[in-house]
Design the sequence.
């Protein structure tokens, strides 16, 4: 089985256009889907659907097709998924001390570290924390 890193820009360049007269999507669509899955920490296999019993063979561990390996660790992938899917109710601009406390020291945010507030939000809603 061939392997590559999902999200590698060289794969997108090699994949070309988005389909042919016989199929929808083409290789570029498959490469982009694998890239999106990789952001969640999932590796992907692209294999020909014309091969006999291809899914059963893959499930049995046979080397069929090309494996696109996720380069993102699972915790980082979870954070990326959240960043892609969460809607922010507001934004907080923080001073340098608050940024340091949150990002480097794992501390809680105190009101004194907030220099600006954007949006209308309540307790439990998701807000973005922005560095100055």
Sequence:
């Amino acid at each position: 089985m061939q392997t590559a890193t999902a999200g590698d820009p060289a794969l997108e360049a090699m994949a070309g256009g988005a389909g042919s007269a016989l199929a929808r999507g083409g290789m570029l669509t498959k490469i982009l889907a694998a890239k999106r899955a990789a952001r969640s920490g999932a590796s992907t296999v692209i294999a020909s659907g014309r091969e006999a019993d291809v899914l059963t063979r893959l499930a049995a561990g046979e080397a069929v097709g090309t494996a696109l390996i996720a380069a993102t660790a699972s915790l980082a992938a979870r954070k990326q998924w959240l960043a892609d899917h969460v809607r922010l109710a507001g934004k907080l601009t923080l001073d340098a001390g608050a940024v340091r406390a949150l990002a480097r020291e794992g501390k809680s945010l105190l009101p004194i570290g907030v220099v600006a507030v954007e949006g209308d939000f309540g307790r439990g809603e998701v807000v973005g924390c922005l560095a100055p």
Observations:
- The longest helix spans residues 26-38.
- The radius of gyration is 21 Å.
- The mean pLDDT is 85.
- The domain at 86-130 is CATH 2.30.130.10 (Archaeosine Trna-guanine Transglycosylase; Chain: A, domain 4).
